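Per reviewer request, we include the raw input and output of the structure prediction for the construct analysed in the revised manuscript.
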Amino acid sequence: MKGKIVGAICVVITFSCSEPEKESPVFSFEDLIVDTLVLEKDEGVANISQSLTYMDTDSGAYLFDFQNRQLLGWSFPEGKKVSERFYTREGPDGVGDSPFKHVITKEGIFIIDAETKLMQANFEGEVISRWQLPGVPSERLYVNYTTVPNNPISQIGNELLIADVPFVLKEEIMDYQNWILRYNLDDQTSSHITFSFPEKLIDYYDDPNLGPYSHFFNPKSGKTIVSFPVLDSLLVISEEKSQWVNASMDEKLEILKGRTEQQGDYTVFLPDHNSGRYVWVSFDPVQKVYLRQVITGLWPESVRESKGPYKVKLIVLSEDFEKLGEVDMPENRNGFSTPVGFYYSIGNLGVEEKVGFVRLDFSKMK
C-alpha cells in the first residue's frame, strides 16, 4: 500500500512540475532583409514571376523567367534585362499554353502541355525533343500535371520529377498513391514517389484550396517534402522511409471548408477564402532551412488595399526540421534560391518599370 501511495505522489509531482510548451519566436519580415534585387521591366514584359531560375553560365550569372511563351533573362545581381525570346504556340516548334508546368535547365526548357505531352525547347525558340508521358490509370480517373502551382518540376540527372495534383480531392482517389512521376528521358521508363492522402482530408472533398497538396524535392538530401493545406505536419519521403514532422504555427489554424453550387450541368467549387491553409514549402540551401508559408485568414476590408487580402506567416525549420520561428509576411507571395540566399518577391517598386525581390537572412533566427 505504501508503494502505491508513493507512486501516486510521483505522478502528481511529474505533471505539476512540467513546464508549459514554449512559443516560437516571431520575427518581422523587415528585420530579415539584407539586400534588395531590382529587375528591369519594360513595356514588352507583362509580368515577372515570383519564383525565378538562377543559372551560372560561361558569360556570367543570370535569372530566367518563362511565361506566356516568353523567355526573359536578367543579369544577376545587376537586374539588367539582357535577353528576350518568344516561342510559338503551335506548329513544329509549338509549346502550347501551360502556364505553370515547366522547368528551366542548362539543357533548355522542359514544358508540359495538354496534360501528358512533354517537350524540350532550346534557348533559340526551337522544340528539340518530345515525349508522351504515361497514360491515365483507371484508379486515378485523370491526371493533372499542368494547372496546380507550388509543385515545381525537378531534374535529377536524366530524370524529371513531375507532380500529379488533383484539382479537388474526391473519395474515388483516396487510395491512389502514385502522385509524383519519376520519368526517365533516355529510355522513357517511369516510376513513382508514392504516398496516400491522409484520412483527415476526407472532410475536405471538393475544395480547391484545401484538397491539393504542394511539394518540394531537396536535391541535396534526396528527400521529397509534401505539404497538405489542412495538416500541421509535413510528410518527409526518402528512399529509406516516410515520416511525419511537425511544422505548425503556434496559433491554431482555423480551417473553413467551402461549398459547391450546381449551375446547369456544371458544378462550381466555392472555397471559403476566410479559411487558413498551408500554401507552399521550399528550401534555402544557403541557410539550410525549410520554408513553409501559411495563410492564416483575411485582413479586414479596410486594410486590404495596402496589405493585400491575406494574413500570411512563414514557418522556418532547420535542416533537421526543428522549428526556428515564424515570420510575419507582408503578402502571400513566393521566392527563389540563389548561391547567395533566398529572394522573396515584393512586387512592383512604386513604378511598373521596376520589380523587387528581397534577400532574407534566416541565420538571424538561429
